[in-house]
Description:
By secondary structure, this protein is mainly alpha-helical.
Amino acid sequence: MWDPPDGHPLRRLFAGLAEHAFFSHLGVADPPLTDYLSGLLARFLHFDAVYRLRDGAGRPITELAGMVVEAGQLPAGGRARREYYRHIGDFALFWTGVYPEAVERLRNRACKDALVSYTAQGKRGYLITSRIEEEEHHDAEADLFRRLSDQFELCAVGLRKVREEWEHPTDGRLVS
């Protein structure tokens, strides 16, 4: 799975867009939060990162409902459970924030995700991740994931603003 390094131009682009969107449009000055979200955008550029979770047969899990079921079957605690729930939060926030129209289209399809609240499951995923981090004494990480859970809707709005800025740059930062 490709994850652009910190100095990569795409990471810098997303970092600048996230910082601007959250501070200028939403009045949120939270560098750890915007750093996490810009990293999420950079990671999710690659299809394999969006659908990195696998079922018992090794097939990619493409629906949030399936991710939740798989995560629920993992043993309590541990890295695998943490990574599943973190990904559930990331997946739900990415689609809810960046491509809300895709989530809305799911409601009209015959699929499991038509019955799932991406917001509720994203918040839950981040909350469970924060609790696992807390148990492992990673207090700064636990606090970040708790904020992602508590402020999920705000983060989704911020990611929508990031998308608007990359689609319609207003100050010449991006070139079409």
